[in-house]
């Protein structure tokens, strides 16, 4: 086994950016921990996944690690991580250890995380301001530890020097930084998106009436891993027929029947970055009349949302455009009654479309960042303008549950079409289109 460190350049740059922000806000010490390891059952663990904020600033993916940034007379970046341990490494794999980590990840210093209780109070002494991701802690127990170190720092300085009496939340600062992706991040996200698109193609090629949801999940996972993705970005949704109307239906044991639609919402995580794709297609390779009618409406809604995604639109413009097309289509097909204006005003579409048209995408599938104009993120603020380098999903859908008011032909049809888009000056770059959305192309792919 060998350990691979990412190119440290972008992580150094982000730490510098955060340190500059800290200086602008009076200086101080920032402490961030990575995510804890989690037990699945007895002595088995879930696959380890680092904390996204921590990774963003360090590039470091091993557990039990901490970052300390000091914005003082001299700036410092310090890592705490697990020490080398030849015996445990035989069981669990190589550890970087502080010495190698400092070298490869370019920290000013690195210590064994077993020394946190000694070093943190010492490092905190002299700094009245402590900064951390208070609204997004990697681990709730982290605050208890921080409080303990602050208390010790107070005891050590005995009133002669400052110690952290002022806590500052840096969750929003990091969210704003994370919202605009740099070229390194965009390159990774394009790769993750292509792998996921390939996986969706494979599922379309593998589907047949009689096949189980879990079989298509297996096809998807095979492509993710075979192409180097470390994980899923979220648990895969594979929904046969009526299950598509359950928005987060996990791939289960249900069978796709002749005439059913299949909805797959699945995306891989590559090098810490998510992708998020949904496609809906006929198990037998041919959309029925009602299925095709609703599919065309959702596709037109997505096209309208895409046309309203650019650096000169606000975040909600895509949703507003999609909702208009969905409403018009639902009226045309008789699923809604009355006038267009009244249906829109009363949000009548919500009976068939109960989620929003998109969300930020990044290291987390529902990535951080305010949807409203900063500095406040409350609902009274106007929607924020999109900017180049933001990444979001565009994912309208329609879900028809059986009711007396709806023609039976449409019952149990659930459709969502979801692509990932990078905002550009004049529009957006769709990075997930290696898998078709056009219904004729989809049918051709299924039939081979
Ligand atoms: N896969 C979760 C979502 O589309 O938001
Ligand atoms: Mn999504
Ligand atoms: Mn999705």
UniProtKB/TrEMBL annotation:
The keyword Hydrolase applies. The keyword Glycoprotein does not apply. It is an enzyme of class 3 (hydrolase). Pfam families: AMP_N, Peptidase_M24. One of its GO terms (molecular function) is metalloaminopeptidase activity. GO terms for cellular component: cytosol. Its cofactor is Mn(2+). Residues 6-141 form the Aminopeptidase P N-terminal domain. Keywords: Hydrolase, Manganese, Metal-binding, Metalloprotease, Protease. Its EC number is 3.4.11.9. It catalyses: Release of any N-terminal amino acid, including proline, that is linked to proline, even from a dipeptide or tripeptide. One of its GO terms (biological process) is proteolysis. Belongs to the peptidase M24B family. This is Xaa-Pro aminopeptidase. It comes from Sheuella amnicola.
């Amino acid at each position: 086994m060998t350990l691979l460190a990412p190119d440290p350049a972008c992580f150094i740059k982000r730490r510098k950016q955060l340190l500059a922000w800290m200086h602008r806000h009076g200086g101080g010490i920032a402490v961030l921990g990575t995510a804890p390891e989690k037990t699945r059952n007895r002595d088995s663990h879930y696959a380890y996944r680092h904390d996204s904020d921590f990774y963003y600033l360090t590039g470091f993916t091993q557990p039990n690690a901490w970052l300390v940034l000091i914005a003082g007379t001299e700036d410092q970046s310090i890592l705490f991580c697990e020490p080398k341990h030849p015996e445990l490494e035989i069981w669990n794999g190589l550890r970087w250890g502080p010495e190698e980590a400092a070298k490869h990840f370019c920290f000013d210093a690195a210590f064994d995380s077993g020394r946190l209780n000694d070093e943190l109070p010492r490092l905190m002494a002299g700094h009245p301001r402590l900064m951390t991701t208070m609204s997004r802690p990697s681990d709730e127990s982290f605050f208890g530890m921080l409080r303990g170190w602050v208390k010790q720092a107070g005891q050590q300085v005995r009133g002669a020097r400052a110690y952290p009496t002022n806590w500052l939340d840096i969750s929003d600062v990091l969210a704003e930084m994370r919202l605009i992706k740099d070229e390194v991040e965009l390159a990774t996200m394009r790769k993750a998106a292509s792998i996921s698109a390939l996986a969706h193609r494979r599922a379309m090629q593998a589907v047949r009436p009689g096949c189980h949801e879990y079989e298509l999940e297996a096809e998807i996972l095979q492509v993710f891993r075979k192409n180097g993705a470390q994980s899923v970005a979220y648990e895969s949704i594979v929904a046969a027929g009526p299950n598509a109307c359950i928005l987060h239906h996990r791939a289960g044991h249900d069978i796709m029947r002749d005439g059913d639609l299949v909805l797959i919402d699945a995306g891989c995580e590559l090098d810490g970055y998510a992708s998020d794709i949904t496609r809906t297609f006929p198990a037998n390779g041919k959309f029925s009349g009602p299925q095709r009618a609703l599919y065309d409406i959702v596709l037109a809604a997505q096209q309208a949302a895409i046309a309203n995604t650019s650096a000169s639109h606000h975040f909600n413009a895509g949703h507003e455009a999609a909702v208009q097309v969905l409403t018009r289509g639902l009226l045309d097909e008789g699923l809604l009654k009355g006038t267009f204006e009244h249906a829109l005003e009363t949000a009548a579409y919500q009976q068939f479309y109960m989620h929003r048209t998109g969300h930020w995408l990044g290291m987390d599938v529902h990535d951080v960042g305010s949807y409203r104009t900063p500095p406040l993120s409350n609902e009274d603020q106007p929607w924020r303008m999109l900017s180049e380098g933001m990444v979001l999903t565009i994912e309208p859908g329609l879900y028809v549950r059986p009711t007396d008011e709806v023609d039976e032909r449409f019952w149990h049809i659930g459709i969502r079409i979801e692509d990932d888009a990078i905002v550009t000056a004049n529009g957006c770059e769709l990075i997930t289109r290696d898998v078709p959305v056009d219904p004729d192309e989809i049918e051709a792919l299924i039939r081979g």
